[in-house]
Amino acid sequence: MAAQCVTKVELSVSCNSLIDKDVGSKSDPLCVLLQSTGDGKWTELCRTERINNCQDPEFSKKLSVDYYFEKVQKLKFGVYDIDNKSVDLGDDDFLGGFECSLGQVVSSKKITRPLQLKKGKPAGKGTITIVAEEIKDNRAVTMEVEARNLDKKDTFGKSDPFLEFFKQGDDGKWQLVHRTEVIKNNLNPSWKKFTVALQTFCNSDMNKPIKVTCYDKDEDTSSDMIGEFTCTTTQLLEAGHHSVEFDCIHPQKKQKKKSYKNSGVVKIKSCKVSQQFTFLDYVMGGCQINFTVGIDFTGSNGDPRSPQSLHYLSPDGLNQYLSAIWSVGQVVQDYDSDKLFPAFGFGAQIPPDFKVSHEFALNFNPSSPYCQGVQGIVEAYRTALPQVRLYGPTNFSPIINHVGRIASAAAQQGTAAQYFVLLIITDGEITDMDQTRQAIVESSKLPMSIIIVGVGEADFKAMEVLDGDNGVLKSLTGEPVARDIVQFVPFRDFVKAPKEALAQTVLAEVPSQLVSYFKMHKLGPVNPPAPVSQ
Question: How many Cα atoms sit within 13 Å of 204 on the Cβ side?
Answer without folding.
Answer: 12
